[in-house]
Design brief:
By secondary structure, the chain is mainly alpha-helical. The chain has three domains: about 80 residues, no CATH class; about 220 residues, no CATH class; about 140 residues. Helix content is about 65%, strand content about 0%. It contains 32 helices and no strands. Helix 23 packs parallel to helix 25. The radius of gyration is 35 Å and the shape is elongated. About 0% of the residues have low confidence. It holds the Pfam family COBRA1. This is NELFB factor. It comes from Grallaria varia (variegated antpitta).
Length: about 575
């Protein structure tokens, strides 16, 4: 506990006697008992009625300390209630004047553990604590720690570095949480990275803590946005863009108009948030979003930097890309060209604004990226032709086959498609989402046809964590195909293993997939994969850990030599059915 010096810190300045004074009195007096009695009278509770009550308590063996302590606790509670009441009553200037006077009187006792809560309570209710007091609090680690967040905000708004130290571990935690979801061992096409609704995500610990730290303070909000921009520039990590949107929407949920009305992205983000919730941009909201983009006035172009960061949030990109694929399918049915669909053009415009976020914030040149005509006149029609190929193939399968024999599925990819995926970022993003779409439809033919185009893509997008997380989830729908040597060779040798040695994250995703599907993979293939995926000296802990888990699972599957010999020859061995436990 606190030493005696701390317990009585600051009493002398107020002219109140403390333990040291008593010691001095006793050291220099001739009659100690009389001196003690005098000290008690001078420093006791000054109530005439107590004169008779105290000796009565003495008879009952109640120590004076206990009595004084309980009186003190009672008074402190009353005082705390009174302070909170003062903060709400009377004219604004008057109530703050009262609190400031109280702070002046009590601040010297702030180190006394018993009085500290009262001083902290007074400061908490003052919208502007005097500068000198804030400096004293800041200089003392323990006092700073004990402060209410209302007081800390006043300290932080003029101390960016200190605020940065408080925010930094939260941002690290946020990125880590996102990565843990992407690399989670639970693989499913039903539950993935994008499943939680925006409202649910905003309840996350980090967003809630940051919201609490910011309060209604625009200056602190701006600081956090500045941190997020800087980190996004430094790391290119798109999860910072998600946090930018989540933070704004969290303040929106709490109706903090002080901040929402001054953030020029507020209405745009709010509308986009509704689209993300539905995982689709409908026509009405599309018009609204377009209105915001068209409404950026001369001299305010800087807002494009903020809007692009909001659109670079993977949850926004996911929604725009899914909507694009849906639109393309509709266009096939309507026999319409992409360039004739304003809704589709708007989706592309927002995709390119989002994908251009890093360059825009880096270059500080705030204008919308130019859309390449070829994307609309050549690439999207190509994708539509793939949709047509699928329809034709399906119809052909159903027609009574004459002498002509079965029509094979088209196996070649137009060279233009591969080139677009390598050279055009938006084309690549849409192409990858198309591949996710056909995988989800369990369309093995289309998947195997387009897979070779993924080996080399724009800035290696096909080996990014978000894509691989979604692809591994969707591949569980093609589980039965893993028994086929040819399918495994195309998928593993033709795609995954081309990048495993140079990209640790790809190594991790393949191991995740095998941990989930190993019992479906052709045994010979599994053995060669186990060799190919063995960690090297350079491999990180995560890869080694996953590899060990996989090895353990495979060990459990091997029949022991005893079992093999004991099968009676006349009975046919039953096919091994994976038990849930062996997954």
């Amino acid at each position: 506990g606190p030493g005696p010096a701390e317990m009585y810190a600051g009493l002398q300045e107020l002219g109140v006697a403390n333990g040291e004074d008593l010691k001095e009195t006793l050291t220099n007096c001739t009659e100690p008992l009389k001196a003690i009695e005098q000290f008690q009278t001078e420093n006791g509770v000054l109530l005439p009625s107590l004169q008779y009550a105290l000796p009565f308590l003495d008879l009952h063996g109640t120590p004076r300390l206990e009595f004084h302590q309980s009186v003190f606790d009672e008074l402190r509670e009353k005082l705390l209630e009174r302070v909170s009441a003062i903060a709400l009553e009377g004219k604004v200037e008057e109530r703050y004047k009262k609190l400031e006077d109280l702070l002046e009187k009590s601040f010297s006792l702030v180190k006394m553990p018993s009085i500290q809560p009262v001083v902290m309570c007074v400061m908490k209710h003052l919208p502007k604590v005097p500068e000198k007091k804030l400096k004293l609090v800041m200089a003392d680690k323990d006092l700073y720690k004990a402060c209410a967040v209302e007081v800390k905000r006043q300290i932080w708004q003029d101390n960016q570095a200190l605020f940065g130290d408080e925010v930094s571990p939260l941002l690290k935690q946020y990125i880590l949480e996102k990565e843990n979801i992407l690399f989670s061992n639970d693989i499913s096409f039903l539950q993935n990275f994008f499943s939680p609704s925006p409202k649910t995500r905003r309840q996350g610990e980090v967003v809630q803590k940051l919201t609490q730290m910011i309060g209604k303070n625009v200056k602190l909000y701006d600081m956090v946005l500045q941190f997020l921009r800087t980190l996004f520039l430094r790391t290119r990590n798109v999860h910072y863009c998600t946090l930018r949107a989540e933070l704004l929407m969290s303040l929106h949920d709490l109706e903090i108009s002080e901040i929402c009305t001054v953030d020029p992205c507020h209405k745009f983000t709010w509308c986009l948030d509704a689209c993300i919730r539905e995982k689709f941009v409908d026509n009405k909201r599309a018009r609204e979003l377009q209105g915001f983009l068209d409404g950026v006035k001369k001299g305010q172009e800087q807002v494009l930097g903020d809007l692009s960061m909001i659109l670079c949030d993977p949850f926004a990109i996911n929604t725009l890309a899914l909507s694009t694929i849906r639109h393309l399918q509709d266009l096939v049915g309507q026999d319409t060209l992409p360039r004739e669909s304003p809704d589709l053009l708007l989706l592309l415009r927002m995709l390119s604004l989002g994908q251009g976020a890093w360059d825009m914030i880096d270059s500080q040149v705030f204008k919308e990226p130019k859309m390449e005509a070829e994307l609309i006149t050549r690439f999207l029609p190509l994708l539509m032709s793939f949709v047509v190929d699928d329809h034709t193939f399906t119809v052909d399968q159903k027609l009574p086959s004459e002498e002509k024999g079965p029509i094979p599925y088209p196996s070649t990819i137009p060279e233009a498609f591969t080139k677009f995926l390598q050279e055009n970022r938006i084309a690549c993003e849409i192409g990858l989402y198309y591949i996710l779409h056909i995988t989800k439809q369990r369309n093995k033919n289309a998947f195997l046809r387009l897979l070779p185009a993924l080996v080399e893509t724009f800035s290696d997008l096909a080996f990014s964590d978000i894509f691989l997380h979604l692809l591994t989830g969707n591949l569980t729908l093609l589980g039965e195909e893993f028994a086929l040597e040819e399918f495994c060779t195309s998928l593993f040798d033709g795609f995954f293993l081309t990048a495993c040695s140079r990209k640790e994250n790809v190594h991790r995703h393949v191991l995740r997939l095998l941990l989930h599907l190993h019992h479906k993979v052709a045994p010979a293939k599994l053995e060669s994969l186990q060799k190919a995926l063995e960690p090297t000296k350079q491999s990180g802990e995560a890869v080694k850990e996953l590899y060990n888990q996989l090895t353990e699972k495979l060990e459990l599957r091997k029949p022991s030599p005893a079992e093999v010999t004991e099968t009676p020859s006349m009975e046919l061995p039953l096919p091994a059915v994976p038990t849930p436990a062996s997954r």
